[in-house]
Design brief:
67% of the residues lie in helices and 0% in strands. By secondary structure, the protein is mainly α. Helix 4 packs across helix 12. It is globular, with a radius of gyration of 25 Å. Keywords: Cell membrane, Membrane, Transmembrane, Transmembrane helix, Transport. This is Carbohydrate ABC transporter permease.
Length: 300
């Protein structure tokens, strides 16, 4: 059994490694601190928020979920916005994966006529975009304004994601497809029954990209939607951030125990409601994520 020899580090290497670790730790603290503050504020009772208003961060002595109850109590807007967001995320991700796969697969074949010209066309759309106003005019002309499809169809294909998937498809052994053609399979059957089943890493990665984009998007609703019933969760959260006031902490009762929660607590609880569902998806896709991105980036 071979023993691995450790590479001896010089003093300069140790100093450099220590410096890198310090930078990474500080970056991690700067990244996690705001999130930790949101989590703690969302479960801190109103009394403790008021008492610790001047503190950098308030650690609750008696955690509570009352702020979450306040957000959901009789608030159909939150539930409706959550439903819109879930619908656009699920349907939009599946539809985008389908369109991306149908575009990337033929472009991965060297025998495709005008393949290089088509790729230049897609590259051109990555560098030069029409802009906000022409995009809005197209969406309005197609009759998509004030419909949920305005969230899905304009961004159904992301060229960067398509290129990653195309590069992954180029690495699929040609022998698999040749064997399928001998058995009488056509292009669609090869794609859906041979290529896609062995492409789970890249599908998981690209699907996660699309899902996160759909879940976090809010500006498209600002542009295309005037009906508040069609607002996704992120747009509603933006409205809460812009309109919620910190005044009237005591409400009409004059009692702190029965007071309307401070706006910071309501906002932070709403932020957590919007973050938790998409965070729960990561553990199921993480094992495919790094592999899919790396293979799709370096092969071909």
């Amino acid at each position: 059994m071979r023993t691995r020899k450790k590479v001896k580090q010089t003093k300069a290497d140790l100093v450099f490694s220590t410096f890198i670790y310090i930078i990474l730790i500080l970056a991690g603290i700067c990244t996690l601190f705001p999130f930790l503050d949101v989590v703690l504020t969302s479960i801190t009772p109103t009394e403790e928020i008021v008492k610790g208003a001047k503190n950098l961060i308030t650690i609750p002595t008696h955690p509570t979920l009352s702020h979450y109850e306040y957000v959901f109590r009789g608030n159909n807007a939150i539930l409706r916005a959550m439903g819109v967001t879930v619908f656009r995320t699920v349907v939009g991700t599946l539809l985008s994966l389908l369109v991306t796969a149908l575009t990337a697969y033929p472009l991965s074949k060297r025998s495709l006529p005008f393949r290089n010209g088509l790729m230049k066309y897609f590259f051109f759309t990555m560098i030069f975009t029409a802009g906000m106003i022409p995009t809005f005019l197209v969406v309005r002309t197609l009759g998509l304004t004030d419909t949920i499809w305005a969230f899905i169809l304009p961004g159904v294909l992301n060229v960067y994601n398509m290129i990653i998937m195309r590069t992954f498809f180029m690495g699929v052994p040609e022998e698999l497809e040749e064997a399928a053609r001998i058995d009488g399979c056509g292009d669609f059957k090869i794609l859906f029954q041979i290529v896609l089943p062995v492409s789970k890493p890249v599908l998981a990665s690209i699907g996660l990209f699309y899902a996160v984009w759909h879940w976090n998007s809010f500006f498209d609703a600002v542009m295309y939607i005037t009906d508040r019933n069609l607002w996704p969760l992120q747009t509603l959260l933006r409205e809460i951030l812009l309109t919620t006031s910190t005044s009237e902490l005591l409400g009409n009762t004059g009692s702190l125990a029965d007071a309307t929660p401070p706006s910071t607590a309501v906002i932070d609880a709403t932020i957590m409601i919007s973050c938790i569902p998409i965070m729960l998806v990561y553990p199921f896709l993480q094992k495919h994520f790094a592999k899919g991105v790396m293979v799709g980036s370096i092969k071909g």
